[in-house]
Write the C-alpha cells for this entry.
Amino acid sequence: MSKEGNRYNEYSAYLKNKYGEKVYKLPVNLPGTCPNRDGTVSTGGCIFCDEEGAGFECLPSTMDIPRQLEENKGFFKKRFNSRLFFAYFQAFTNTYCSLDTFRKNILAAAGVADIIGISVSTRPDCIDDAYLDFLKCIKEEKGLDISIELGLQTVNYHTLQKINRGHSLAEYIDAVLRIKKRSIDTVTHLILNLPWDNETDVIECAKVCSVLGVDFVKLHSLYIVKDTLLGQMYRKGEFDLISLDEYINRVILFLEYLDPRIVIQRLVGKGPQGNLDFCNWSASWWKIRRSIEEVMEERDTWQGKKFNYTNGAAIRTISQLE
Ligand code: SF4
C-alpha cells in the first residue's frame, strides 16, 4: 500500500484481486451460547453483549445450516447477481460445542453449492489444536478458504477485564499462533472507541496485529444496547464516549501503524437496529467510512506509514553512525 494507490488495503479490492469478483459472506446462525455467558468462564458475558450474541442479521437458529445458506444465497444472487460465497458462522461462539458437532456443522456448510470458503467466529479461549487440525484438513481436502474470526476488542488487558471479556491478551496471542501454524487465515475484531482506551492502546492494537501476522482486521465502533450492563453504566454517566472526529483520528492512527499487508474488512461496524442507547454517533456507517477516507486524503497518509517498529528498529541506524 502506498500513498499513490489506495490509502488502505481494502477487502473489496483484495477479493477482486483474488477471486476476480466480490464474494459475499452468508451468515449461519446456530443455537448456542458462549462460555462467557453460561458460567464456564463468567456469567453475564461481555458488558456490551446483548442476547443475540452479535447475530442480529441472521436467520433463526432453528433452521438447518444448508437451508440458511440456500436462503441467504438466494437473496444475494437476486440482489447482487453474485456467484461465490463464504459460509460465515457468526453469532455467539461457534467452536463452543463438541468436536463432533463442530465437524458436522462445518461439513454441512462445505457441502452447499457455490461455497468457496468458511469463516468461523469464536473467542480466543475457545479454539484448540483438534478443531484447528480438522479445519486444516477441510482446507486441504476440499480446497476451501478457511478463516477464524477472533474477538479481541483491545490489547489493553485492563480494559479487557473492565468489559468482562473473560480472557486476557495472552489467550489471543496463543490462539493466533496456533491458527497461523496451520496456515489458516485470522481475522481480528477490534473496538477502537472503548471508553477506557486511549490512542496509545489503539497504536498497540495495530502493532500486536502486525507482529503476529494477522491476515484481516475488522474495526468496530462501540454500540450500546439498552438491556446490557454497558447500557446501565452509560445511562448512569459512568463513562464518556469519544466524538466521531476522535474515532476517525483513531482509525487513521491504527492504519498508519498497521502492516500494509493486512487486509481491512471493516473501518466501522453497522450495529443492530433498535433498542440502542448509542450507535455510530447517529451517522450511517458508509458516511463514516467516507469521512475516514477523505481525512486520509487531506492528510496525505496511508496504511503502514508508521509501520517501522519491527526487526530491531533501534539498531537500524547504527551502521550508518559508524
Ligand atoms: S464472547 Fe461474544 S457472545 Fe460471548 S459474551 Fe462476549 S460478545 Fe457475547
Observations:
- The two ends are 33 Å apart (CA to CA).
